Amino acid sequence: MDDPKDWQKRMDSLQIAADETAEVMFPVLESHALDIARVFGVQDKPDADDNPFAVALGVLDKTPAAFLELAAAQRPAAVPEAYREFDRRDFYQLVKETLQLIYCVDLLTALSTFTDEGFKFFMDGFYTKKNLPISPDVPPRTIMRTLVNQASFDLSVIQHAINQRRRQLDGQAMLQGCTLSMADQLAWLAMELAIDAGYLPADTRIITYLAKSIRSRLVPYSHTLLISIPYSALHSGINPSRNYLAIPHEIGHHLYWNGTHPESKLTMRDHLLKKVGEAEIKSDDWRLHWLEEIFADAYAVVLAGPVIVLDFQDMLDDDMSDHFREDTDKHPIPEIRPFIQTQILRQLTDENGTAFYDHECKQLDKNWRNWIKKHPLKASYSLIGQAQPMLGQAILDDLAPLITVILDTLTDILPAEKEYTGMENSNDVSLLFTEFQSYEMPDDDLELVNSFLNGNATDEEEEAIMEHNTEISFWEHVTSVTHKKRDEIKTAEWMQLLRSHGWSNEGPLSDGGATTTGTGTGGTNTGSKS
Hints:
Number of domains: 2
Oligomer: single chain
Strand content: under 5%
Low-confidence stretches: 510-530
Distance between the termini: 13 Å
Shape: globular
Radius of gyration: 25 Å
Mean pLDDT: 89
Order of helices and strands: HHHHHHEEEHHHHHHEEHHHHHHE
Helix content: 40-55%
Strand order of the largest sheet: 1-3-2-6
Number of helices: 18
Largest sheet: 4 strands, mixed
């Protein structure tokens, strides 16, 4: 069926659902804002437009930080029982939870605006004026279905992110909220490096939510990345779970599609393609098929070091499918991918060219060979676009210039010294996990909140704590990824814009479908299909 009235009904239903979700959220946001003030003994419910931080300062005779250091018995009777023992970390979680809910509502608005603009354009071009070119193998109904499916998926994800941050009736955080608070914090720390380097806008946001597995959702209508965390990661405390180690890789995908290189002012993807061209890697070269995945791997390795490689080996060991030795076009061959990652790691050096992690790389390579009981670099592999199979070592050697281009592109964030020492004087690679899991999450990583707690925030800074996110219009997105006039873009090209180019699923373990990225080891593609 390709009835424009039916498409209109579907889109109207989605818009209603988004509006209803936002409407239901306003009381929740008011409740969180009230909780922020009640931590400090505010009794009267602030007006909806009141800033809870300013309201709290109005009742305090000391700095908020000093108040949070008081013993429970010394706090005013007006402070609810659930908040009487709130310390700095508890308060931080409440504030961050509130901010994430604000960003979720902003994201709903951005989604509605973006899809409405796109939908009206396609309805007009395909059904009313009928002035848009059509590819023979991609009918208009495929475009309409894809737009509706993408918007539906995002609406569902945002609703999950909202519901999982609700608190218990007495105001205490639930285990889901505690888990997501840590995931949000780790994700932000992993993203902050790219923001500080000027690769990503300062208003970039990350929202995590719980689902079956690690997967990121890139969206084109906001500088926001959605990352799902597996339910197996549920835990409380101040030390991270190994389940979070895939987060930096997912951020690498976001950077690939949504980043800008400060030197060339090109999008990160276009900058990389320009540089690989200068390195005489042609557009039909098999290495370019793996560019995005290797870039995401490189970002993760640069950020978190050798433990990323060990975690990837662990995930691959759990997912040894029939595709383990296959080139799926979008992903490096799983069997040799850990060697690609250690090759990246070996290129992190000091000013004298000495590798920081040579010992770790040798042990990680040995660990992988022992795990799979073979030496992948001595085996032959068939590559898409190559007439003859290639040895694993030859593949690794041919990837050297591509890896160099990627690391040159990330030069502003490359480490100047060895940052991870978990395997010092040991050949035990499991110590890398021990080192990561012993990291204590900070409770002072929001400058504006610190200013409030120390009692020296200005009125403007208090307002800025709860700032809102920005939107990207449909046409801003289209303009950023294509240089054609809108009436010159055919349906097949619109499909690429709607299913990749910043609106897609990414995951560490997934198939080689057009809307997902990962190891290419099989599994179900959860991206939108036409």
